[in-house]
Every structure is written in structure tokens, then in C-alpha cells.
Amino acid sequence: MRWDEERRRSGSMGQHALILTIRDFLAKRGHVVQCYAQDPIYTDIDRQALDEHGITVLDDPKGFLEIDEETVVISQYPDIPVRQITADITRPALMIWNTVKEKPSFPPTRDDDNHIRMIADNTSPRLDKMVQDYVQLDFPQSPVKRDFGEDTTIYIRKMNL
Which residue has the higher pLDDT, 128 or 104? Predict the structure, then answer.
């Protein structure tokens, strides 16, 4: 396993823990929550572990088809334009993902094999317009900052929409 893949898996674990925390929080308040995850690097072991914790793994693009107005979307540094696809589909209740900025703050970098890595989830005018309908909160940071970067924001859809 390459270092960047190991780092990506570590970040995914933090996202999975957050999914379970949100699910359990809502369950204590009487809400039934179905949890889904979508990532092409999942192994059979990953799928089994997630299934044991009540997270259903969906193949691409089926995860996007589950997004609606009651959905919580969690995404960090994806390799596909998750935010733009979400903006095209609906307005989820809550989104936890990289902060939407006017100009991308992620310059191209090189991976361990010297391949250029570009950020695939840049902003767009329709994404900028969508987040105007949300209250924005800074995501709390742990001292390690391993699971979620400093540029993570919680977007909560405004009630009057």
C-alpha cells in the first residue's frame, strides 16, 4: 500500500467515525438514519467492517442517487467533483466538506510516483450560489488534524428554504 493510499484510508476512518457519531446522535432523538458510503478503494474487508457497523457501501454512482433534502453529505479531498454533483442534484440538510472558496486553495502536487495530482472538487458559480443557502460553521479541529483538514466547514441548510 502506498503512503498516499494509507493516508486516504486513515482519513476515511475519521469520516466513518463521524457518520456513526451523527447516526447515533440522531437515533437518540428518535430518528432512523440509513448510512451509505461510496469509495472505489474499498476492499472486501472494508465493506465487511462497514456493514458490521450499519454502513451500506454503494458502488459509484449509486451513492449520489441517495442524496436528497434530508441527507448529510460528508466528503474530504475527493478525487471526483462531489460538491458540484451534489449542487446539481439537490440541497442536502447538512454537508461537511472542504470549505467552498472563491479560488481553489489546493495547488497541483506530485504523488510518490511523481504523478501530478490535481484537486477534482474545485468550486464553481453554482456551488458558490448553493452555499449561500447554508449557515457555515468551522469544523472543530483535533490537535492531530489527521482526519479532517483545517479547511473543513459544516454547512447547515437555512430553515426558511
Answer: 128
